[in-house]
Amino acid sequence: MIGVFDSGHGGLTVLRSFVDQLPTESFIYFGDHAAAPYGPRPSAEIVELTRRAVDHLFNQGCRLVVLACNTASAVSLRTLQQEWLPKAWPGRRILGVLVPTVEAITNVPWHIQRAPQLMEQRPRTVGIFATQKTVDSNAYVEEVLKRAPSIRILQQPCPDLASMIEAGADPLIVRPAIAGYVGNLMANLNGDTLEAVILGCTHYPLVAPIFRDLLPADTILLSQPAVTARGLKAYLHRRPEFRSAEKSYRKFMTTGDPKRVTALASRFFGEEVEFEAVADPYKVAL
């Protein structure tokens, strides 16, 4: 059984790709809607909230958990993997959306921690639209430059965009906000060609057509859910012991109001789903 965690609905776009590419696997989705959004929170609080959520999923029987949240991945993943997981849950694994995204940008496997000396890399400019917290962590820039120092990364924070999408804001309101973010990034190109863009928040695929319309026609728009699903599929091929032993099924859990969460979830997942409440959202895994 595989756990999928996000602070809200955004991770459902990733889960959709997981289900499409790995239809025989079983998944539990856990959204910490009561504490969302994570972006404005202090880093230490994000780490602790993520730890509690992962712990809860492990207690539900998951042996592998994917952080389908860029903020949680950028801020929490390394700390949890290195400092908490080996002591609390030896033999379990935590993955995130950052790793497969960096691999897609650089075309360099994650296990290569420094740029290959003999690999010829042409200069490229890649844009990342993300939450303020993900941008502030600088995780994407640091990891990309280790592996492909010729790539120029332009990061553009998108304050409130995830919250607007989560709330189902009218496209007439969302589009001008995105136009401002795209305009800010384009103004910083300084004559470079924007070769590719990553929407570095799992909410953003729902407004990808707006980004596509506002970006240059020849700019490649990479799908983070699809990239992450390919990464998970490759991981399970290498580590088949983490495949689901149970018959394929899905379960959806939330720390928020399950009726409200359920009402919004189909927009993100692409089909009707039903969430159930975590009994005590502030005492899971204490």
Question: Mind telling me the C-alpha Rg?
Answer: 18 Å
CATH topology of the largest domain: Rossmann fold
Q: What share of residues are in beta strands?
A: 15-25%
**How many individual helices?**
11
> How many β-strand runs?
10
End-to-end distance: 22 Å
How would you sum up this structure, described in words?
The protein is an alpha/beta fold. It contains 11 helices and 10 strands. A 6-stranded parallel sheet has the order 4-3-1-2-9-10, with helices on both faces. Strands 6-5-7-8 form a 4-stranded parallel sheet, sandwiched between helices. The protein starts with a strand and ends in a 9-residue tail after the last strand.
Descriptive tags:
286 residues; Rossmann fold; globular; alpha/beta; 45% helix; 2 domains; six-stranded parallel sheet; 10 strands
Quick overview:
With 286 residues, the chain is α/β, with parallel strands linked by helices. It is built from eleven helices and ten strands. It has two domains: 2-96 and 226-277, 3-Layer(aba) Sandwich (Rossmann fold), CATH 3.40.50; 100-223, Rossmann fold (3-Layer(aba) Sandwich), CATH 3.40.50.1860.
